[in-house]
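note to self — DONT lose this again. spent like an hour looking for the file last time. sequence + predicted structure for the chain T wanted, 134 res
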Amino acid sequence: MELYVGGRAQGKLSYVQQAHPGEQMEVIEGSRMVNRMETEGCPEKNVCVVWNQFHRYVREHMGQPPAQREAFVDQVVRELPKLCIISDEVGNGIVPVEAEERSYRDEVGRLLCRLAQQAERMERVICGMGQRIK
């Protein structure tokens, strides 16, 4: 599994596509990963699955217990051998006043830390340029 993080509109998806030239890719946005896994199951093993906008999945499932989100993320990582996860960094900047927004930021950060530990490769993308972290 590969993890790519960076600010909003920094060219993360284009960067990932360029980093995997000639590979067959399936890009799945945010919460659509849930439907993809439930209705269609795993894609062929030679397909590189890109889970784009991971942070949106977290936002749309904040009503679930954290353990349920973790279990789903673990399932995706386990079942998709060629997986690239792309997420905005949402923990930088001004701390939101609303408790729900703070919880969301914390949860994205917590899940990204968990994914970073498991990732074979991790990069931060800024202005379309990758900076390898792991």
